[in-house]
Amino acid sequence: MPRKLQLFDTGELRPTVAALALNLVTRMDLLRLKSIARLHARGLPPDVSWDDLLQEAMTRVLTGARRAPAGVPIVAFLAGIMRSPSSEHWRRVGRHPRAPGQSQELDALDPAPGPERQLSARQELATISALFADDPVALQIIAGLAEGLTAEQIRAATGISKTDYDSARKRMRRCLLREGLTCGIA
Amino acid sequence: MRNSLKIAAPVATLTRVLAALEFELVNATDEEILEAARDLGMDPEMKGSAAFLGLTYPVRARLADYFDLEAIRNARAAATERLAGKAPKIEHDE
Questions:
Q1: Which residues 113-142 on chain A approach chain B with CB closer than 8 angstroms?
Q2: What pTM value is reported for the model?
Q3: Is residue A119 included in any domain, yes or no?
Q4: Is A126 inside a domain boundary?
Q5: Most buried residue among A129, A133, A159, A166 by CB atoms closer than 10 A?
Q6: What does the pLDDT look like over A63-105, one tens digit per residue?
Q7: How far is B79 from chain A (nearest CA, A)?
Q8: Is residue A27 assigned to a domain?
């Protein structure tokens, strides 16, 4: 349901609004992006919020700092950009500066992350597990994904049927969307 | 397979999990988003829905969202000037 939105009365041109004005994303896309931003904001310091992450991604697109490759949906592209600030943060606080020529995408593959990053990652993994604590099938899927297994490999290892697997994925999506939609509400 | 996460390499593990969950959210349908919103009592079709907090209006309300701060500053400066020049001096008896 693409619908034009009004700018703030302050006259401030928020990138999200500007993006809508450019018909880059629909209102449903914005909610999708909000949940993705919430997901990627995990593990970042408290002064970096999900909306900072999303605004930064939007700004990079609108200023031309990042250009979407042809054929890549805008939501997938913005989601990819939102991974970068997380990596950049850890590169700043870590002991392993980026090597000349190393791309931002490679930061996630840092072979020797510092202890602070490892601790934060453990805490975030625990938080994510807690989200699905009441759903044993979802937990099995998460455990499989954590080991880098494909859907077929997870089903083969766990004996979960395709129907149960797809149902669990749907429950997981709904849970993550609910998490995202409640962002900003005290 | 265990239900618990193997965290020998937590950063790499978290990266894989986040990428997989991001994929799920990127591919969530509009209907799934609406269902999740309904679970929370939200109606994204409604103007001003709480679902859009931080997206189409700010998460943290700022004075500038409600008041014309420039006009307030000007009015305050004018009032201060007026009071300094014209307000009667209050004299106190000892």
A1: 113, 117-118, 121-122, 124-125, 128-129, 136, 139-140, 142
A2: 0.72
A3: no
A4: no
A5: A129
A6: 777 777 777 888 998 999 888 766 666 666 554 444 444 444 4
A7: 24
A8: yes
